[in-house]
Backbone:
């Protein structure tokens, strides 16, 4: 099942190319916000599923193109993002120590929305293509063997980053939690529709040019270990989001006017726009292209404020 919020955060399901209104099926779920509705639906999904499916089977729906798609998780209680969690196509000798950071729920946007590059002296703005999973029931000190029992579903996730901000070493919070820096969607796909989340192709295009193209089988600390480790630090609740990291070799600068498309296999296409009122520019080369030229680091800014 593909769950989605659309228009004024009406709950729906995607069936083919249409969105079917699920308002009738969830009318009995008391809630205080769209996120609270999704959390409660996820938590009680085994009891709700038959009713949802009945509505989907009866409803013709409307075309996805005729509605405004919203983030399926508009304000999760937790957004945990894994750091340096890929082997980078075998270029790393060993996995980096397992690590993660929080992103603010205020950074969330949905498909069709716009990432705004702020007026800060970042050396570069990048967006990392990632597979994210969503927790289905309270997870505390979960063993790796039981990890998949706690996953409700999966979705596309872009981890926006404002790199190189001063002072040096003061990194993750101000780099990762900027407003609009957590695009996700377009919908939430239940786990039963994804046969092997550890073998999904992940592709990201910038202005229709393929930049990132990697498989989740390159993940250094795989999903069961991620669940085990994160849940050993603090509990995860239904509706919490865990982004699993990226292969950095295809990263390139996001800049004003860009159209970005992300497709994790089986999860639809997350499409966002990028806006920079300062109109700053960088070369379009990826980290891999720079590496092949013998150049270190990210491409330098070539015009605009802070260049």
Residues:
């Amino acid at each position: 099942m593909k769950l989605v919020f659309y228009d004024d955060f009406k709950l729906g399901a995607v069936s083919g190319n249409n969105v079917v209104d699920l308002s009738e099926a969830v009318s009995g779920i008391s809630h205080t916000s769209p996120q609270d509705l999704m959390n409660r639906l996820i938590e009680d999904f085994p009891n709700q599923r038959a009713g949802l499916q009945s509505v989907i089977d009866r409803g013709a729906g409307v075309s996805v193109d005729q509605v405004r798609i919203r983030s399926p998780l508009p304000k999760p209680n937790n957004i945990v993002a894994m750091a340096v969690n890929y082997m980078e196509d075998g270029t790393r000798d060993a996995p980096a120590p397992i690590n993660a950071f929080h992103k603010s729920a205020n950074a969330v946007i949905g498909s069709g929305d716009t990432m705004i590059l702020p007026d800060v002296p970042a050396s570069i703005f990048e967006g990392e293509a990632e597979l994210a999973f969503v927790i289905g029931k309270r997870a505390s000190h979960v063993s790796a063997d039981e990890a998949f029992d706690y996953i409700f579903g999966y979705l596309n996730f872009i981890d926006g980053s404002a790199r190189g901000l001063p002072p040096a070493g003061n990194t993750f919070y101000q780099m990762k939690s900027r407003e609009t820096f957590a695009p996700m969607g377009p919908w939430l796909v239940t786990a039963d529709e994804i046969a092997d989340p550890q073998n999904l192709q992940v592709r990201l295009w910038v202005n229709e040019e393929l930049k990132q193209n990697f498989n989740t089988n390159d993940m250094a600390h795989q999903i069961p270990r991620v669940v085990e480790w994160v849940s050993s630090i603090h509990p995860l609740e239904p509706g919490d989001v865990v982004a699993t990291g990226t292969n950095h070799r295809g990263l390139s600068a996001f800049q004003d006017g860009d159209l970005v498309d992300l497709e994790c296999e089986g999860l639809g296409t997350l499409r966002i726009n990028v806006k920079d009122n300062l109109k700053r520019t960088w070369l379009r080369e990826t980290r891999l292209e720079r590496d092949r030229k013998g150049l270190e680091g990210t491409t330098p800014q070539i015009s605009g404020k802070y260049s």
Summary: The chain has a mean pLDDT of 97. The first strand starts at residue 2 and ends at 6. DSSP finds five helices and 19 strands in the chain. The chain has two domains: 2-70, 79-303.
